[in-house]
Design brief:
transport; membrane; ATP binding; single chain; MetI-like fold; MetI-like_sf; nucleotide-binding; about 270 residues
Length: about 270
């Protein structure tokens, strides 16, 4: 009984630590600056106002920032799922010399921080004249070692008898990959897509590095520059942050069933 009570206490503490900052941010988006600084210990506003949400549309090119974020996160996620799954199919289902070495090289790249390769990639984009372009923003992030690893582990759990049956029917590798493996890999696809979309949607450093033009910036970059260029209007920042959270919440609730299945089954082999 004591153990069960302690578990609920730990869950309650964790829930409070997670939800109180979110409540404070939501409430802060409805507060004035005077209320925010005058009643810092108060969780809820003393004076409710929609100034923050009006300011999002009046003080920021919000629709442009939102469009750039959707395009960057959406297209990059789609390319990541495609390229990572194709690479993982080769590593999991094909027999060729150096396959194990190639897989270990992929795993090694997981240990290299993204910041280490930031300057070399930036220089390549500069020479290609791809700075402040969508292709420069999207293509360098169009694959991930973690996605390859997760897809490969999931594909290893699919019986190879399915491949043999498809070959008897005359299917090649491309058809087996597209018509047999991918339909069975929906949990892995949802997991990789959700994790990548969330990471890309919240990415701040990469869009700031490759996009100096205001028309090419994403929501996190736009909100960060807004806070740095002007006297900070916290209500506007909070409102922008809340609106930027909505797509992630929608994607998660739509994919959560497959996400849980993908996480639980990708490590079977």
């Amino acid at each position: 009984m004591l153990t069960k009570s302690l578990k609920w206490i730990y869950v309650g503490i964790g829930l409070l630590l997670a939800i109180v900052p979110l409540i404070w941010m939501v409430a802060g988006s409805f507060r004035t600056e005077a209320d925010l600084y005058g009643h810092t210990a108060s969780l809820l506003p003393h004076e409710w106002t929609l100034h923050g949400y009006r300011g999002v549309w009046q003080q920021l090119p919000f629709l442009r920032l939102l469009f750039n974020s959707v395009l960057f996160a959406g297209v990059t996620t789609a390319l990541t799922v495609l390229f990572d799954s194709m690479c993982a199919y080769a590593l999991a289902r094909l027999r060729f010399r150096g396959r194990t070495v190639a897989f270990w090289l992929v795993l090694v790249t997981l240990m290299v921080p993204f910041q280490v390769t930031l300057i070399p990639v930036f220089m390549e984009l500069f020479h290609f004249d791809w700075l402040n372009t969508y292709q420069g923003l999207i293509l360098p992030r169009a694959t991930s070692a973690f996605g390859i690893f997760l897809f490969r582990q999931f594909f290893m759990s699919i019986p190879k008898e399915l491949d043999e049956a498809a070959r008897i029917d005359g299917a090649g590798h491309l058809r087996i990959y597209w018509r047999v493996i991918l339909p069975l890999a929906k949990p892995a696809i949802a997991t990789v897509a959700l994790l990548n979309f969330t990471n890309l949607w919240n990415d701040l450093i990469w869009p700031l590095v490759v996009s100096t033009d205001n028309t090419m910036q994403t929501l996190p970059a736009g909100l960060a520059l807004f806070a740095g260029q002007h006297v900070t209007d916290h209500a506007v920042l909070f409102a922008g942050a809340i609106i930027s959270l909505l797509p992630i919440a929608v994607v998660f609730f739509l994919a959560q069933r497959y996400f849980v299945a993908g996480i639980s089954t990708s490590g079977l082999k």
